[in-house]
User: Fold this.
Amino acid sequence: MSNIDFNHKVVEMKNITKKFGDFTANDNINLTVHKGEVHALLGENGAGKTTLMNVLYGLYQPTSGEIYIREEKTSIEDPNVAIKKGIGMVHQHFMLVQPFTVAENIILGMETTRGISLDMKKAVEDVKKLSDKYGLYVDPNAKIQDISVGMQQRVEILKALYRGAEILILDEPTAVLTPQEIEDLIEIIRSLTEQGKTIIIITHKLKEIKMTSNYCTIIRRGKRIDTVKVSETSEDDLASKMVGREVNFKVVKKEREKGNTSIKIDNLVVKDNRGINAVDGLSLEINSGEILGLAGIDGNGQSELIEALNGLRYVDSGKIFMNGKDITNKSPKEVLDNNVAVIPEDRQKRGLVLDFSMAENMILENYHKEPFSKRGILSYNNIENFAKDLIKRFDVRPENEKIKAKALSGGNQQKVIIAREVTNDPDLLIASQPTRGLDVGAIEYVHNALVEQRDKGKAVFLVSLELDEIMNVSDRIAVIYEGKIVGIIDAKDADEKTLGLMMAGGGKDGE
Amino acid sequence: MENNRGNKYSIRQRILSSKLTFTILSIIMGLLVGAIVLLIAGFNPVQAYRIMIDGVFSRTKYISYAIIYATPLIITGLSVTFAFRTGLFNIGAEGQYIIGALVATLIGYFLELPLVIHVIVVFLFAAIAAGLWGGIAGFLKAKFGVHEVIATIMLNWIALYLNNYLVMRPFLRRPESESSYDILDSASITILEKWKYSETGREWLSAHPYIKDFLSAPANLGFIIAILLAILVWYILNRTTLGYELRAVGFNKDAAEYGGIKVEKSIITSMMIAGALAGSAGALQVMGVTKNVIMLPVMEGYGFDGIAVALIGGTTAIGNIFSGLLFGALQYGGPKIQPPLGAPSEVVDIMIGTIVLFIAIPKLFKIIMNARKRGEKNAK
Ligand SMILES: Nc1ncnc2c1ncn2[C@@H]1O[C@H](COP(=O)(O)OP(=O)(O)OP(=O)(O)O)[C@@H](O)[C@H]1O
Ligand SMILES: [Mg+2]
Assistant:
């Protein structure tokens, strides 16, 4: 299965060190990648993977160290140099122009012109040719805002290929994809390497490393720990190498004591941005003392449901009762006052004010309460002490409450939100994709935090696209399909096949 | 434990990267280009700058005037800064200033109140009126999504014509003039206005020539109030829950909304505060310097200059005090090169313009750099 050409080192990073101020994000890292290889980077949140790749792509200049591209010493001053050298990068947060079409986005900056006008016909043809070649099917004339995240990612990959990328860096490409889209991506990676491309992939999912990669370099706290041959290493080995201790994948839970109804959702109808009923007569009850997992394929109304529960989206009809009290169409603040806390799915859009410090973000919902403020005046002393405490308890790195949220690694941003919401000590904790982009150690931590809430007799509503997570953590599993609950089963009786069927609209009693 | 405590840069790095250094360099560059322009136009730049510096610092009266010039600019700068820090672009300081000045004149002329109280009442009414004026733009943005730049530009013109309409009404117009009646003495904030022309005042002042000189300009309390307002703005933005809310909305509306902050209300509040600030600049100008409002053929430019002042001040409250003073000194001292050198007044305009441009170019530069950095940040 290997397409590796060991005679050609296409990337060699030697003794790369990258410092931000006096914080060392990359510490003397070596990385060698051969032609046709898929090389995975594995490491905890904040280990320095993205930083290392940004150095390779010319977004950051290394503090020291050398880079060789095709065995030739290269100084990559900016991404233009990287592109010239055949390096392409797909960032975790896409950089596409929303109102433009797929083809327009792909050729952006490299337009072929005829006279003074853009040769759009040729562009569309070029894109078609390229996508056929690698099995990356897209509709060149569709607008970005109308296509799925998985499709947008293909556009990003095509964009890089169009610019002549031979070496493709994918930073957490699967974090935002549905299981089906992940399978497609793995297929695409295979077809790319077959045609001689080289791929460096960052992912927290060990399964994916096993499925895609030849070699894996493990980074811990900025240092390279090891480079291993993936076929000779087990998932457990990878995990413990990365975290530096044994990792428990299985969530340990005590038997649950069934409590009273915490939230009751009754025949809820909520529209999406296009005005279509995304939640369409959904009813669901969650009890205190349980974790209810919501399984479903992306886009079946999960996001709209949560926004409605959060008070961010208008409920057209139906009711929501929290502890027996009607909270339908209440403001986010009132929802919170009714002891419902939400970990939002989009951490950069909803969850954080990126230009605020970590400390300021940790009080986002409670800034107006004591001890953070008194009679309208903030107490930065109390705010910072509170933040310091959370940073310790939730192991957020770096341990500096004054640092802006935008300087944190993706995983640590997520930890800030989780720390904040869990300390709200809500009666109902709604967690939407809470472990997206987290490393296995951090996932273990989050799962334990959810179970702890449950054991305290609180209700937890876990929404996740990852079946493993749902099955592992939940007590009961509800399946959403086209805005309705099509079945609820006990987690003990759940397996991937039954759930898969239900998620496809089969219903519990469907064949 | 690894060394992941904050960012401690070396002193050299810190000086080089500091905003202040950046700004000072820009000012020096601006002055240099001003000198070159003068040279090309056939004037001696050293001589010209000497005249300017003397024109601002050689007499206490000049210093007094420079401060008087600076005062309204500091405050309109604060207005722009406040809006900017909460994610809004207040082009409307101009109109809010007009409303503030107009209301100050009305209350100062028609209402008869005891000394100190009259000043406070005038100030409050003017600030509130201009705050509501600014609030209109906030309301239009919050409720109908009208961009505040468009709304405030229109409100500027409405304010101008409203001013001109009222000034020309018989009840307000001083006969045979293009200005309104003067405010009552009880509403004045000019320092020792009566005393300095009285018998005892004159006697005392002739024994103290520097003070006499200083007071020969309409020195007033406005500058002190401007400094207090700067401190207040800093405090509101950085130390109050209101400031926290407004900044959160300015940075990220979605997250603010999720955090339970009322976004629409915040936008309105922010524009109201910005308006009140610009309005108080107008009120202080009336109470301290002009004593009336006049028929305005064109915009006076206090609001627009406020944008430049805010920019030079790094959109920080305290920075506005210094950039306002710089601006005031230039506007006051600049034209003084005209009579002795015979330099046309356009040269002065070019000089002021160049400095602003040089301040703005690095800012633009920074914006571009930041956009690139944001690209880096997104790369995760
Ligand atoms: N521009 C910056 N300024 C200061 N510190 C930074 C900057 N960018 C990254 N860091 C710090 O460097 C460390 C490594 O960040 P990086 O984004 O490379 O982590 P990562 O391995 O990609 O983590 P994740 O899996 O969470 O995405 C983090 O502690 C982060 O806070
Ligand atoms: Mg990363």
